[in-house]
Amino acid sequence: QVQLVESGGGLVQAGGSLRLSCAASGRTFNNYAMGWFRQAPGKQREFTAAVTWRGGSTYYSDSVKGRFTISRDNAKNTVYLQAHSLKPEDTAVYYCAATQRLTPSVATMRGTYDYWGQGTQVTVSS
């Protein structure tokens, strides 16, 4: 089992920045690729970003590419999502997730990920 705990969400004005963190425990962190998903009210959970085991490759949804950066610190068992130029449409609950089955073709799929955190709320005001 892998336990994931997100933090860093909050209320921010449009154009602002936030850094989300996801702390992992339970198993060897660097055996897992990590992803961030988000779910806005009334919408399905959608892929946001992912990073491979050692951080060598990253993947982004088109909606956040160029504004968000995913990174990981394996020494701290933590993955980050740095969000810049936030927009009201970025408002959502953000979830981190872990998988040992990441490949480019399935990185964006919810079913690829086996472990999920409880989420952290991000609200962007206009």
The major pleated sheet works out as: 7 strands, mixed
Q: What is the rounded Rg?
A: 13 Å
**Overall SS class:** mainly beta
- What portion of the residues fall into strands of 2 or more residues? over 45%
What can you tell me about this protein's structure?
The protein is 0% helix and 48% strand. The chain is mostly beta strands and 126 residues long. The strands form two sheets. Strands 2, 4, 5, 6, 9, 10 and 11 form a seven-stranded mixed beta sheet that branches. Strands 1-3-8-7 form a four-stranded antiparallel beta sheet, with no helix packed on it. A hairpin with a 6-residue loop joins β4 and β5. The radius of gyration is 13 Å and the shape is globular. The model has no long low-confidence stretch (mean pLDDT 96).
